[in-house]
Design goal:
This protein has helices at 5-27, 51-67, 99-104, 167-174, 189-197, 212-224, 257-268; strands at residues 40-42, 48-50, 72-75, 89-97, 110-117, 120-128, 133-138, 143-145, 148-149, 162-164, 181-182, 203-206, 227-231, 249-253. By secondary structure, the protein is of the alpha+beta class. It folds into 2 domains: 5-149, Fructose-1,6-Bisphosphatase, subunit A, domain 1 (Fructose-1,6-Bisphosphatase, Chain A, domain 1, 2-Layer Sandwich); 162-268, D-Maltodextrin-Binding Protein, domain 2. Helix 1 runs antiparallel to helix 2 (51-67) and helix 5 (189-197) packs parallel to helix 6 (212-224). The mean pLDDT is 92.
Length: 272
């Protein structure tokens, strides 16, 4: 889509504007503290999908087609196609990350859009309109929250870290030799990850079965803020694979990734 950092920077405000407009569409159905006005159905497995998810998905697909006619597409609310695998660039979208929260009137949900080039996200927007927070990043240009630069925490040791983790792992971490502060867990994985990017949390652990649309935009935001997102098996993530499903994940400042991987493996083996 873009062949230089300068051209990508020019695209940045257009992507952000597109996602902000998508957020306005979602907000028309959102009722703070109350059940959404949107019609709700349920997928196999019981997760909800609303007419707001579908409306945002359609809007973003049309918008990205106008901005980049040759870009591929991967979205939670669109039937996947193997055609994207042969495309050097794809958009990876979660129209509403945290739909369960959205349905019940909880403000912790976000519209998430990433541009992936040759397997890695190079642009990302995570927009939480009900929280009035918009996270953006473009490779080589830093990460921002509402237009202000953000960085991960300066922590270099696990002791005292503020950690977000699933229930079982959080219990194990509380019993470890480290004095962790276990932080509340947002319903939106994208929002959990960008909290590390802005330094509000130090570590986020996520269980298996997240999907690329949950994490791609937050991945580039983390990287540009001085952090990293890894699978617990180790190594940076590669996108636009046949399967969008992920194993357990760790988000942390770059200085803590190695120790965090060791910590996660010890926790999984019951050796904390």
């Amino acid at each position: 889509m873009q062949d230089s950092r300068a051209e990508r920077a020019e695209l940045a405000p257009r992507l952000e504007a597109l996602v902000r407009k998508a957020g306005e569409i979602a907000m028309a159905y959102f009722r703070p503290g109350e059940r959404t006005s949107a019609h709700v159905t349920y997928k196999n497995g019981g997760s909800p999908v609303t007419e707001a998810d579908i409306a945002v998905d359609r809007f973003l697909r049309e918008g990205m087609s106008a901005l980049a006619p040759k870009i591929g597409w991967l979205s939670e609310e669109t039937t996947d196609s193997a055609d994207r695998l042969s495309m050097p660039e794809i958009a990876v979208v979660d129209p509403i990350d945290g739909t369960t929260a959205f349905v019940r009137g909880d403000a912790r949900w976000a519209v998430s859009l990433a541009v992936v080039e040759e397997g890695r996200p190079v642009a990302g927007v995570v927009h939480a309109p009900a929280l009035e927070r918009t996270f953006t990043a473009f490779a080589g240009h830093g990460a921002y929250l509402n237009g202000e630069p953000i960085r991960v925490s300066a922590r270099t040791a696990l002791e005292g870290a503020r950690v977000v983790a699933p229930g079982g792992l959080a219990t194990a971490l509380e019993k470890s030799r480290y004095r962790f502060a276990i932080a509340p867990r947002s319903p939106s994985l994208a929002l959990r990850l960008v909290e590390v990017a802005r330094g509000a949390d130090d570590l986020v652990f996520a269980g298996p079965n997240s999907r690329d649309w949950d994490i791609a935009a937050a991945d580039v935001i983390l990287r540009e803020a001085g952090g990293a997102l890894f699978e617990m098996s180790g190594g940076p993530l590669v996108y636009n694979r046949a399967s969008s499903r992920r194993e357990g994940l760790i988000a942390a400042p770059a200085a803590l990734i190695e120790d965090s991987l060791d910590l996660a493996h010890a926790a999984l083996k019951g050796k904390l």
